[in-house]
Amino acid sequence: MAKGKITVDIDRCKGCGLCIEACPYDLLELTPDFVNKKGYQPMRIHTPEECIGCANCAMMCPDVCITVERL
Amino acid sequence: MSKIVFQRTKGLTEKEFSYCPGCTHGIIHRLVAEVLEELNILDKAIGISPVGCAVMNYEFFNCDMQQAAHGRAPAVATGIKRVRPDNIVFTYQGDGDLASIGTAEIVHAAHRSENITVIFINNAVYGMTGGQMAPTTLVGQKTTTSPFGRDARLCGEPIRMSELLATIPGATYVERVSVHDPANVRKAKRAVKKAFEIQMKGLGFAFVEFISTCPVNWGKTPQEALNWAKEHMINYYPLGVFREPKEDAQ
């Protein structure tokens, strides 16, 4: 299975959580104990080694703040 | 070697969207912008901004934009397309804009088969002004102006714009899509691309309706709003192609 990597533009994220529901492996979460400059809890990946680079999170991101790579 | 499979399109500016968290306007902006970039028409595209939440989208699309009076985007697009036929002209309108105050403009633009592309966002409420009942509000849906739910005897049934426009001979392409999950987002992008290709071939009026959400005015979280759209909106507003050019029909 291809391995993937996501990069998040943290200050653009509004913490809506649509990417969290879209991830087929439940790898995403809202960052605990941190807020960005807009005052939202941005998303982050808690287990990056399991990402497959499917880009479902980027498909659902309304603020287009995710970049997806396949390694 | 890593390969980038998804990155922010050049069709969008660096400006951050002004929409509420989880608003599907952002997804639809991205789809339109990606299609403009992929078809290599960013330098000759002219978009018409509506009145509504998306009124500021002239700051988000990386192409020429013109803001129009409420509901009059198809009329402005008609003028621009007739004066500059080599440009690609699209309108981006919400349901308060297109299905309510702008009904005459959209119906007659379709009747004349103007060679423009219309992106219609249906989220069943007036979003910008605070969630009032729109012509597209579902029967029984609670809004700030229908606190006991929409009463069909008082307000009529919600208007189905795609079905209405599909009865017009001049409407070349009419499709309704949704963005409630990744598979439907990918499908929606194909519809947007087709709508722009039809204009590039000069075949006439192309219309894509999006089932969208308004988490804040629906009183739901972003994901609950997508689920609600899937369960209730799509029941009343079925997805699919309502009209397409003859050579593409099966």
Overview of this protein structure:
The complex is a heterodimer of chains A (71) and B (250). By secondary structure, chain A is α+β, with helices and mostly antiparallel strands. Chain A is built from 2 helices and 4 strands, in the order βαββαβ. The radius of gyration of chain A is 11 Å and the shape is globular. Chain A has one domain (4-70): 2-Layer Sandwich (Alpha-Beta Plaits), CATH 3.30.70. Helix content of chain A is 14%, strand content 23%. With 250 residues, chain B is α/β, with parallel strands linked by helices. Chain B has a single domain (25-244), classed as Rossmann fold. Chain B is built from 9 helices and 10 strands. Chain B has helices at 25-38, 73-83, 95-101, 103-111, 152-155, 161-166, 182-200, 215-218, 222-236, and strands at 3-6, 45-49, 64-67, 88-94, 117-122, 125-126, 132-133, 171-178, 205-211, 240-243. Chain B is globular, with a radius of gyration of 17 Å. The mean pLDDT of chain B is 95. The chains are: A alpha+beta (71), B alpha/beta (250). The interface between A and B is medium-sized, with 29 and 31 residues.
